[in-house]
Amino acid sequence: MTIVKLGIAAVAATVALVGVADAFELKAGSATKLVPTSIQLGIISPPDNICPGNGKLTAWVETNKPGTINILVVKKGGAVAGPFAVTTVKGANGIVMGSYTQNLMINNPIDAEYRVVVAGTPIQSNWVPLVAAC
């Protein structure tokens, strides 16, 4: 019976040491890297799709923890704009989110689609239209 007690004590000591080692590893700098988890894009075209007029582009980024991440705005078949910094913060229900907004002045006819991406990751939004006729 004494051997059984010693065996249980040895197992308990080993488990305790492993737990302490894990705690030191976390404190020693194995911090979690900031990673985007999802991104969405919304575009409001000018009222009645007439120009000149004002529009608005807004991107929402979710990450695994608070921080700053760069996004790019991509025009389908065209240019890439950015990077634009988005700072995410922890909000309701533990969601970590930030947004980027750009006001648009539409002076010429446009019928285009845009998406936002986080360079170097597979995270990207759906294509969203921007339409205005003059």
Structural key phrases:
134 residues; seven-stranded antiparallel β-sheet; 1 helix; alpha+beta; disordered N terminus; 7 strands
Characterise the protein shown here.
The chain is an alpha+beta fold. The chain is 19% helix and 48% strand. The chain has 1 helix and 7 strands. It has one helix at residues 2-27, and strands at residues 36-44, 53-63, 67-75, 80-90, 96-106, 110-117, 128-132. It has a 7-stranded antiparallel sheet, with no helix packed on it. The longest helix is centred in the first third of the chain and has 26 residues, at 2-27. The model is unreliable at 1-26 (pLDDT under 50).
| Secondary-structure content class | alpha+beta
Which overall shape is indicated by the principal axes computed on the Cα atoms? Answer: elongated
Could you describe the largest sheet, including whether it forms a barrel?
7 strands, antiparallel
Stretches where pLDDT falls below 50 for ≥5 residues? 1-26
Strand order of the largest sheet: 1-2-5-4-3-6-7
Nearest-integer average pLDDT? 83
Helix-strand pattern: HEEEEEEE
Radius of gyration: 25 Å
Q: Give the fraction of residues assigned to helices.
A: 10-25%
Cα(first) to Cα(last) distance is 92 Å
The DSSP helix count reads: 1
How many strand segments? 7
Q: Beta-strand percentage?
A: over 45%
